[in-house]
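Why do we bother with holo predictions? Because pocket geometry can differ from the apo form. Keep that in mind while you read this record for iron/sulfur cluster.
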Amino acid sequence: MKGRIDEEGFLEIQRGERIESQMCPFNTDIIVTAYALGSPDDLKPGGASCGDWCPLFGEPGKKRAPGDIIFIDICQGRTLAFEKLEDRRK
Ligand code: SF4
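The structure, written out:
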């Protein structure tokens, strides 16, 4: 999987040819409201995107496996594995 953490700390993952912002499925009220209002681009400032604002979003881990895989632990015991991860945070 390929992805990046943008300048504001929000997670984006490559899905097919596109880089998609990853929404938090536990912030459904904000997401549903934004789409209903036709303004999903306004989601990021509301904290509905998955990212480092969330205490359950781990820091990119050291490579813990053969190869150059980078891991991020997230909620519900899941771990995201990236073959390429760009971290644009300062
Ligand atoms: S890590 Fe946090 S922001 Fe990301 S999906 Fe899980 S609960 Fe939502």
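The beta strands are 2-5, 11-15, 18-21, 70-73, 79-82, 84-87.
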